[in-house]
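Changelog entry

Holo records now carry the ligand SMILES as an explicit input line rather than a separate metadata file. Below, a converted record for flavin-adenine dinucleotide, shown in the new format.
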Amino acid sequence: MSISEAAISTLRETLVSSVIFTPHDEGYADALRRWSDTGAKPAAIVIQPTEVKDVVTALGWAQDHHIDLAIKCGGHSVSGTSSSNGGLVIDLSRMKNVTVDTIKKTVTVGGGATWKDVDEAAAEHGLAAVGGTVNHTGVGGLTLGGGYGWLSGMYGLTIDNLLAATVVLANGEVVKASATENADLFWGLRGAGYNFGVVVEFTFQAYEQRNLVYAGIVAYTPDKVESVIGILNTLLLDNPDPRSGAMCIFARPPGAPVPMVNVLVFYNGSKEEGDARFTDLLDLNPVVNMIDMIPYSQLNSLQNPMATYGGRKSFKGVFFNPPLEPIFAKTLLSDFTAKVQSDPDLGASGIILEFYDMTKTLEVPRSATAFASRGSTQNGIITLRWTDESKDLEHRAWAREVQDRWKVNLDAAKVDVKGKADVPQYINYAEPGDSVVSNIYGENLERLKQLKAKYDPTNVFCKMHPIRLG
Ligand SMILES: Cc1cc2nc3c(=O)[nH]c(=O)nc-3n(C[C@H](O)[C@H](O)[C@H](O)COP(=O)(O)OP(=O)(O)OC[C@H]3O[C@@H](n4cnc5c(N)ncnc54)[C@H](O)[C@@H]3O)c2cc1C
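Structure line, unchanged by the conversion:
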């Protein structure tokens, strides 16, 4: 696809607030940069607006000239769903204002903000919202696909706390979506939201969060993997606590010869309460214990050193119905260890298994939002990282093979779990082509098709799990 200079000049002349990057402009390479190099593509033009008017103009321009379009918020899509090969990127990253209503305890945030912007602005008023656990991820992508975070145990998913959104539709109309305005669109935004427009503003319910939280990594040698998983299963199933959560992360800390069993623990309470909650884990003699009392606004930065920008990455979601079989986890760790030891270029890879209390999330009926995987299934991610582009296919194939094994394990488990969803895979951990379920929207697909026909009949927003008409 090639775009004429005349067309680009027309766009330049009509935009009022945007910084514009074409290949001739300084800063173009930076504007293409994404969290993973695999997600970066050479757009013909990138615009970074601060006013909604420019989003409307650019959307119209792309359609008039039949130009490929991508919308970017935090830029964490590893397959490039927020990038365009030769087309236009509307990069919302300058639309990141956060305003806090301390009376209603709400946070209103621009469509290009990161969770760091939200966490820090809310903390100034003793508040917190249910956001992502790595604070440089975008509010946009995470919210539109559902959103799990450390506060999900207490308050549910990010979408369960979304009160309103302002959306620029494909036809250029700017509309509000909430329980009382365009309620059908509001339903679709919460779980399938990348399909309907550019969300330029989100309003979330926030909550008092004045106390410090108990959080940090405890690390164990690989031989402890079965004991660790056993303890995490017990905490989740026999002793659920909405104030608590954990992630088990197989990864090689700097200096370690092999991947270790690292557990990131969280308790929204005092040190005594946290120690009591995790006493069995602490008794297991970790080789590292970095647990501390920290502000909530710092919690979502703890994983940043393991989730840095750069390199080529694959991000493949897995899922399990707890209890996770300790022996299965042990096999997984040993296969993962063999894989990363076979190629030193994979040294910064990891496998993350979440253990969140889903009770609050399950209080919302599955039909209340478009989020199809609402259930008691837990999520995980195989995140490989390397630099050698010639290894892309090989590494992705390995991750896919492991991903398939998880699905077989889940199907075989036949656990009768309350709230088990027909679509077990979390949409935000399944980029297009990586989904191991055939229909990521499950029973919501027909209703979503009707919404797509109403709000985006020509499929302008088609990059992330597109809803196909016909
Ligand atoms: C390191 C890391 C940590 C993560 N942690 C969590 C976590 O704790 N909890 C969780 O639930 N998920 C998590 N995720 C998954 C995350 O929710 C998705 O990767 C999400 O899509 C990232 O959004 P983004 O805005 O950063 O990415 P982008 O690449 O900018 O966007 C992703 C998709 O959403 C669309 N989009 C983004 N913003 C808008 C908007 N305002 N309007 C319309 N479309 C938009 C884009 O067009 C694109 O298709 C994590 C991912 C990574 C890589």
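Spot-checked after migration. The pocket of flavin-adenine dinucleotide is lined by residues 35, 70-77, 81-82, 92, 111, 132-134, 137-138, 140-142, 144-145, 147-149, 194, 198-199, 307, 315, 428, 463-464 (CB under 6 Å). The first strand starts at residue 19 and ends at 21.
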